[in-house]
């Protein structure tokens, strides 16, 4: 049993003022693996105070100093990669290949930020003005459980690169990862108070960060409902707010695509991170006259998608993070059946041969209409909808007929046509024939998928305010 009894404030590991114990589980077994003692509002206040005190000096550090800090943080997180990978598997259930990628990503984002900073010019002359980018102040960084270590490091990297100081509120369901990352970041030896990590509940610590007058900026990744709440809470003090929220990303398979390649790729896009990904391609849009061919390929290919033991290198879909999340996904599978969608693969209950753990059968519904609930709402599990279109004009209309706009995928052998379609899709990112991430390009959503952008120069500038000095 793991016991996590400390938070990190002002450069020190301290016992929280909060006394609530929160149970941690291994989602692959549904058994408890330990507990974390949660921070409360008093701890959040102490953390904000420490970050506020550290801000004046830190905001005046040179670019070279901050690049050095980021590189030291990168090296420190690299040094715990194996431990972090094991924790990601144990408390989140990511399949091993994914867990390795996630742990590496947590380190890489720190180096990426150092590189962005290296090339960034904080001042420029515009007309008669010297325009300087100035850090906003103390940033509140709130992360979810579906990539906790990665989001801690990515948000912190951008905040510190800009010269902000930070209070981080990670997901309490990810306390093992947070403990490992915190220990590593402490080793990097930054000045006390520059970053503070207080694991506590969203309704207490998260809510305080969203309204406290000494927090200038909130960067949040999570559900759209909580994102809207944070925006409202921040309005009183006009906080700068970055929101990375949900998605219902379309995967457009064009008639000219090689379906033997496109269908497996679309399944991969849909089932990535066990379906617990805001960018998952959960609506597969296919030409109507080729539906039978697509259905046959899905049935053939889905046998290669194994849901089960995350330690098994054959597994590509791990368990859902919690019982609540498992029940939510089961509920949506039931809704799909009740809405009259055709259950092509998977369905309710546990996958064959599995008796414990929060596993879901990789599920594909076909003959779904875009008005069905399963096509409109973010399920956050391995449940995909196949929707047909008559022509590309209709495909575009369906792709854009969603409250979300985070990511879209186009699979086609006709590059000019794919690019022309991409120009008409309302999404922050469009991936043409690839599933690869580009850390230098901005990431974020149109419409209700969020506000603002992370990564690269855009992500850096989200922690700064331009100031014009005219002379
Ligand atoms: P969530 O409630 O939005 O949680 C995200 C983070 O926000 C957590 O650290 C959470 O803390 C915190 N939080 C909750 N209420 C808050 C408040 N009032 N003020 C400030 N912070 C608050 O997401 P969830 O409940 O874990 O998952 C529910 C659904 O959200 C999922 O099914 C999925 O659809 C979506 N989701 C999206 C993403 C994404 O990457 N866009 C990630 C995760 C979840 P607590 O853990 O204490 O609640
Ligand atoms: Mg929640």
From TrEMBL:
One Pfam family cited in the UniProt record for this chain: Aldedh
Top-level taxon of origin: Bacteria
Catalytic reaction list: an aldehyde + NAD(+) + H2O = a carboxylate + NADH + 2 H(+)
InterPro entries reported in the protein's UniProt record: Ald_DH/histidinol_DH, Ald_DH_C, Ald_DH_CS_CYS, Ald_DH_CS_GLU, Ald_DH_N, Aldehyde_DH_dom
Active site residues according to the UniProt entry: 244
Similarity annotation: Belongs to the aldehyde dehydrogenase family.
Name this polypeptide is given: aldehyde dehydrogenase (NAD(+))
Organism for this UniProt entry: Pseudomonas kairouanensis
